[in-house]
Design brief:
alpha+beta, flat
Length: about 110
């Protein structure tokens, strides 16, 4: 991955995390975290993998995240400099326990 794209992905991850923490309306008992961001080759679309805690509220939060995609894009447009195109944001919920289990399995495979 080219250096500029790495910087852009890192910027998106950080700023989407700030957006979710400060500007996304959610109940005080819900914790949201951006685990990873993937940007398409043309930088027209960005997939943000978000973990939701507690997991039983993930469906409710997913609906709210879908409605807030435009707000997130507008927030990013205000935070970015010298960028003509702002990618479309897709929030994808992930199960953190599932992610941890996959990482452990991958580590086992690497060590064998």
């Amino acid at each position: 991955m080219p250096h500029n794209q790495e910087r852009f992905v890192s910027f998106l991850k950080k700023e989407l995390g700030v957006f979710l923490q400060r500007h996304f309306p959610h109940d005080p008992g819900i914790f949201l975290s951006v685990l990873n961001v993937e940007v398409s080759a043309s930088a027209e679309e960005a997939k943000a993998y978000v973990s939701v805690f507690p997991e039983n509220r993930a469906d409710e939060v997913q609906k709210e995240l879908k409605a807030a995609r435009g707000q997130a894009r507008h927030y990013l447009a205000n935070r970015m400099r010298r960028r003509r195109r702002i990618p479309k944001i897709l929030f994808i919920p992930t199960n953190i326990e599932h992610e941890m289990r996959l990482e452990k399995l991958l580590e086992k495979v690497k060590n064998t």
